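Hi R.,

As promised on Friday, here is the backbone we talked about, encoded as structure tokens. Could you run it through your design pipeline when you get a chance and send me back a sequence?
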């Protein structure tokens, strides 16, 4: 009987079982289907951590499930999503563009001002943010916390021009 159920499930290509197998949680398939009555991936919208605890799923497995569901759904779109402060800081767009406002007319740009920061020309700024950093350019400092796939640490990056830049880095476990 078990072999027939497994073959039937494989032949149908049931999306829920395939999804759980992709994230290596296939051992919870029967309990999730029978005890939580989740038969489609979208049903996880109504599942809580306590429900997953009741079927014997540990916290690391729950995090893996929620992370996979987030990746599967894709980024949240729409005007209701606030722009994070990190995006504002690290984006090359100006604050006026981020707030979707026209440039302020009360302060006309002076001829000596450029849209890019005075400390770095456009090409150099692009070089800093769009490249891999060599290990010898980094100094790893104190631990900030734990992430899904590793430890997050504070560090200092010494750029090829000798400028020291504070940074955070994920150290894979």
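Update: got your reply. Pasting your designed sequence below so it's all in one thread:
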């Amino acid at each position: 009987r078990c072999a027939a159920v497994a073959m039937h499930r494989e032949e149908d290509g049931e999306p829920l079982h395939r999804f759980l197998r992709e994230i290596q949680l296939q051992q919870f398939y029967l309990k999730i289907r029978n005890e939580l009555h989740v038969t489609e991936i979208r049903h996880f919208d109504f599942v809580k951590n306590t429900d997953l605890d009741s079927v014997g799923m540990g916290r690391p497995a729950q995090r893996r499930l929620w992370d996979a569901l987030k990746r599967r759904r894709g980024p949240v779109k729409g005007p209701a999503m606030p722009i994070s402060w990190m995006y504002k800081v690290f984006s090359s767009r100006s604050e006026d563009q981020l707030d979707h406002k026209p440039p302020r007319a009360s302060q006309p740009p002076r001829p000596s001002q450029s849209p890019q920061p005075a400390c770095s020309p456009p090409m150099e700024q692009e070089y800093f943010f769009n490249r891999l950093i060599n290990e010898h350019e980094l100094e790893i400092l104190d631990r900030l916390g734990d992430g899904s796939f590793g430890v997050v640490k504070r560090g200092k990056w010494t750029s090829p021009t000798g400028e020291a830049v504070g940074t955070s880095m994920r150290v894979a476990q």
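One thing I noticed while checking it: The longest strand covers residues 138-146.

Thanks again,
M.
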